[in-house]
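Narrative of activities, Objective 1.

The group set out to show that a structural description can be obtained from nothing but a protein's sequence at a throughput compatible with the screening campaign. Below is one input-output pair from the validation batch, recorded exactly as produced.
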Amino acid sequence: MVRNGKRGIFVKNREKTGTVYLVEMALLVAIILILAFTPVGYIRTLGLEITLIVVPVAVGAVTLGPKAGAVLGGIFGITSYIQCFGMSPFGAMLLSINPLFTFLVCVPTRILMGWLTGLFYQAFLKWGSLKRISLPLANLCCPLLNTLFFMGTLTVFFYQSDYVQGIAASLGAKNPLVFILLFVGVNGLVEAAACFVVGSAVSQALKKVIRH
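Output recorded for this entry:
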């Protein structure tokens, strides 16, 4: 009887954990969709296009694991691709040049970003000197990976296009590396700062809720 009781408690706790997982996933998916299709998610000003959608992806990857990070990153990527259909001037130009390459720039890169963020967080937890700062460090990795993968594939697939060459010329970039550094500029810094501060705070709060 005691064993059955303990087993019942174990099953109940596991079901509770699964419910919390699904609820948090649903919440983060909803946040991504709201950010993607409202002005809140994409800050477009002074020629800059800064996305804050990396924040819920990072939060999910840290609190729910690499698989959740990959799913959330994929949803982010799909909404990013949808933006190319008239919602983002830059994305629309890429889509007109090559729809397949545009998809590869938008979607697989974000899936990989979310997955790796979760893996990095797990690795940091096992690394003695980084354990205490593993949460903010993982939240910082997410926007950095997003920028790295997005700009990397953008350069590989579109750098030789007349459109990107025109942007490179306007920036004074004479090679792909300089183009990436100049093009990222303020955008990358703001995204990294937002994810580092907001993502870390939200992740810490959610982990406390899940723990209890």
